[in-house]
Design a protein that fits this description.
By secondary structure, the protein is α/β, with parallel strands linked by helices. It is built from 21 helices and ten strands. Helix 6 runs antiparallel to helix 17. It is globular and about 85 Å long. The relative contact order is 0.12.
Length: 506
Amino acid sequence: MLEKVDLTKRMSKEEYKEKMPLLESRLGELQRHCKSLHIPVMIVFEGFGAAGKGLQIGKLIQSLDPRGFQVFAVEGETEEEQMHPFMWRFWTKTPEKGRIAIYDGSWYRKVLTDCFEKRTKKAELPDAYHSICSFERQLTDDGSVIIKLLLDIDAKEQKKRFKKLQKNKETAWRVSKGDLEQNAHFQEYQALMEEMLHKTDTDYAPWTIVEAMDKRFATVKIYSAVIKALAEQIEKVQQKEAVKAVQADSGISAVVQEAAKNANVLQESILAKADLSRTYTREEYKQKLKKLQKKMEILHGELYRRRIPVVLGFEGWDAGGKGGAIKRMTEKMDSRGFVVNPTASPNDIEKAHHYLWRFWRAMPKDGHVAVFDRTWYGRVMVERIEGFCSRQEWQRAYKEINDMERDLADAGAIVIKFWMQIDKDEQKRRFTARQQNPEKQWKITDEDWRNREKWEQYEEAVNEMLLRTSTEYAPWVVVEGNCKYYARVKVLETVVKAIEKRLQEK
């Protein structure tokens, strides 16, 4: 692909001066439109060393309101970043809705510079490409526009620019040993770019190759590409809002959603198979708990020593015993090595990002444990049932969640999800007991009673969730919870066995 690019393209100063005022004005206008429509924008600058990424970013932002964008310079991973899945540092740098994020270098470093310098092994490339495409797909499906610009120059021009930089003591530092290696093995690096383009040039996040031998031509092409992408996204959003308005007026949307929901009734119930008669006596419970907590205390130290991250998600019916199970599991663990994340309704900042953003930010670094009391699965349960997201959004969430959990597992994490299962009678008994106990009344709310009225809807959603998202790398474990003693022991036994298995594999 790169070999066919015409790098002889040039633009005169006169033509440049004629075109730029209109382009600059149009870009500023589109930025304001994106802000008003809450469209997040991500602009990626990649390319050969000395191709002019920094220069072109500087020219682009001159037409933007500085209050509405942020530039990220992507260098090698910090020690902290190395202890997370490689996409973690980019998920945490995604823009809020209505803002622009510009990346000088990006997540493509993993398959370009890091691969060229042998920091990324060839065996890691398939997973890296999967993570990249999944990341871009999830964000664009959620309304982001991703503009990817590859600045292209030839080996001769790159060498010439490096020499020019080296001659000036104020710019010599910008030419690294790695840059010179890239020029010396230009075709090898170009082959990595060709592979990258082949694997990641998609309809939802296409590449624009910018002929960067002539700086004026490059600037105009970059402006034109950004303007085209923003204008298309704005038109798309406006059309979608117009369709929604028509459907709301005619009542079609509600009818279609109800019909689709009724057509999607699952034939198999995983929850119905849970044997809720399982129980332990208090004496059995105390004996098993003591033994398991002692193991957990030792294993937690081994996790830290061997730098193995653990992600544990807890979902279940209201009053299902999540808090009690989490408390017993973490009781003997070193408090410096784990975090329990209680998940409530998203705040305004969290709503301004992709729904997975807030969970990515809380993922543990190597050797640490992250426990989630309620999780990202709210997307396919409460948000689905209460209408907080569209049918299309919660349906695609199954794949998005599977992809996120695969990223965690590929980075070495142990990922386990628990569904705390109780029956409707047991839930009512626990609700009543909480209401009658002054010390526990805070645990019961009117919303808990309202959710109980939708038991069958939640049961259908949970069964579908378990079927679609229980994977080998991130399994669901249904915990029979009518007996709290049994549930707490099963959770601990499951976690201990999973850690012991991983340690044996290592």
